[in-house]
Design goal:
Number of domains: 1
Helix content: 40-55%
Number of strands: 8
CATH architecture: Alpha-Beta Barrel
Shape: globular
Strand content: 5-15%
Structural class: alpha/beta
Number of helices: 11
Order of helices and strands: HHEHEHEHEHHEHEHEHEH
Length: 297
């Protein structure tokens, strides 16, 4: 039987944007900043997804993931995300650290390839040992209105993941409206996504507070309807600790404390970690440190 999208509530654009804007006015007291900074580090997927990636670059990234700063109070990040060909390199370096190895797949970032090719890439990447797969939806099929095809492809990829967790990237910057984001979130969750994710980081706009709020509300409603937990990952454009805190507060107020864990929430941002570490040094010493306080990257 072909998948049929169930009724999905329309999104009140004005209300979503007003509520999202309210999160930009929140602040964290000085006494709580170090705890908030450490908490943020634990949620980060440290990522390198460039054509010029080398084993040496991935090794340096993994070392930074395990020990982001010289201060031992700074925790490790949640995961390192790399291309499939670099999974083995990351696994060897991260062994025993608790840091997960994530890999993009399914013809990232376009998603424009044959389904059997995308499924084979997923299977081979999981066989290499990836803990998590970040897939991109078939936006061409979605924008053409073929919702059932998008659902069935995600379901097939979820099956191909086996024990690995599946993060489904909607590439919200290409979907056009909040209603489309809400519907795509529902389809991905119905198809078995363990996480839904805003963006590849290759398209602008990437993560925004209003879009993330729409996705969080979809997760909340799906949980209330089914009891099934789905995680959330905003990715792209989150560059400062202050921005990251806005997302964390939004998660807390929309989904509750149970989602404030790396098992249910991640931040995908390549430049965020360095700003968090600089803010950490300021909170610790009262002034900004030079790059001496940061590990090699």
């Amino acid at each position: 039987m072909s998948y049929v999208l169930p009724p999905v509530p329309s999104v009140d654009q004005v209300a979503v944007e007003q509520r999202a804007a309210a999160f930009t006015k929140r602040s964290i007291k000085t006494s709580a900043k170090k705890a908030a900074l450490a908490f943020t580090v634990r949620m980060i997927d440290l990522t390198t997804l460039e054509g010029a990636d080398t084993p040496g670059k991935v090794l340096r990234l993994c070392r930074k993931a395990m020990r982001p700063a010289l201060d031992p109070q700074v925790p490790s990040v949640a995961a390192v995300c790399v291309y499939p060909t670099m999974v083995g390199v990351a696994l060897r370096e991260l062994a025993g650290s608790g840091v997960k190895v994530a890999s993009v797949a399914t013809a990232f970032p376009s998603g424009q390839s044959f389904l059997d090719v995308r499924l084979d890439e997923v299977r081979r990447t999981v066989e290499l040992g990836a803990d998590e797969i970040d897939m991109v939806i078939n936006r061409g099929a979605w924008l053409a209105g073929d919702v059932a095809r998008v659902h069935d492809e995600i379901a097939s990829i979820k099956q191909a993941c086996g024990p690995a967790h599946l993060k489904v990237i909607l590439e919200t910057g290409e979907l056009g409206t909040y209603d489309q984001v809400r519907k795509a979130s529902q389809v991905a969750m119905d198809a078995g996504a363990d996480f839904i994710k805003t963006s590849t980081g290759k398209v602008s706009p990437a993560a925004t507070l209003p879009v993330t709020l729409v996705m969080l509300e979809a997760i909340r409603d799906h949980f209330h309807a089914t009891g099934r937990v789905v995680g959330m990952k905003p990715a792209g454009g989150i560059r400062t600790a202050k921005q990251a805190w806005q997302y964390l507060v939004m998660v807390k107020e929309t989904l509750g404390d149970a989602w404030l864990t790396p098992d249910r929430f991640r931040l995908g941002a390549s430049s965020l970690l360095n700003d968090v570490l600089l803010q950490w040094e300021r909170a610790r010493t009262g002034h900004y440190e030079s790059v001496r306080s940061l590990s090699d990257d």
